[in-house]
Amino acid sequence: GTDWTNMEGKSEGLLIGCTAKGKKEGSGGKIVNVLVAISYKKGVIDCEQYEKMNGQFFRSYVQRKFPAMFEKAAKGDSRLWIQDGDPSQNCAAAQNAFRDVNASLLSIPPRSPDMNPIETLFHLVRKELMRQAISNKITKETYNEFSQRIVSTINGISSKTIDKIIESMDKRMDLVIKQNGNRTKY
Q: Phi then psi for 179, rounded to 5 degrees?
């Protein structure tokens, strides 16, 4: 999931920092939280806005969404879910929910955007939100308008773009190894 900060005011969408990843507080704005799932050759297979991420919410999400998402992903018996180390998504309740839906978890280290394809997607979404704000001269929008724009933008990312992000993972891993685990251009 990621957080997007809505700065309700005259500069919404036009200043650096109008969207934020990983911040639980904005500078006076409300945060839009979304949980996004992508799949190779299928694109965005789920995008759900939520109020607060915790173990109970994530367990419910797994139970409600995973069966349909894995069916939509159409990967046969593969039920691999990749995520970072968010404690609420790795708690005992979440682990039990993974088992209940026969999902396997591949956990990548927290704060490792180089190894997390969804972070690249979020970067593209941020750029597109900024482009929209400038080209549409958005100077103010409500929280609901901003939320809808985020979800619409995420759902509008093409399957081809997502495939390119996922296909870049081999190069990313090679570069992470070459950089001895230090940050890369990704």
A: -85, 10
